[in-house]
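Sample entry was shown:

___
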Amino acid sequence: MSRFLTGLLRGGGARLRLFSGALGLMALPALAVTSQSFQLSAIVTPGCLVTTGSGGALGTLNFGSFSGADSRQVSASFVPNASLSLACTPGVALSMSIDGGSYYATQRNMQRTGGSERVPYRLYSAASLAANSEIGINQPVSVSIGDSNAIALPIFGVATLTGLSPAGNYTDRLTVTLSW
């Protein structure tokens, strides 16, 4: 039996040494990487942004106040809403199109509030009001961008007073669509 015990202890001692050797490896301090880099990226896509403050109208085209007996053409320039701003990524090709409005028949019209009388008008993309700058119904018009953070829409109008218009407030509502 003593031989058996001696063999067991001898064999067990080897196992004990192996086990203590494994513990010794675990007790050594591990080498760690303390800094590492990583990559960041972003893709900026071309686009435009309309930022609104108070109100929601893009602006106004006000022809002014005239006698119902006036028979002539009157012009006006688009005045943007001060609480709105239009900005685009530099290099964007911006265009706009304008629908026919609420009272379109064969041309754009303003209609008297509370009535059916109309005053026809035309829109242009140049202050010269040249025929080749007339803005057709839903036809794209290029918008030049001087300052990509403060874009002005080139909209000018001419209303035709017929001399037969009853007194009142004449209005229309247009939708402008911007594309890029």
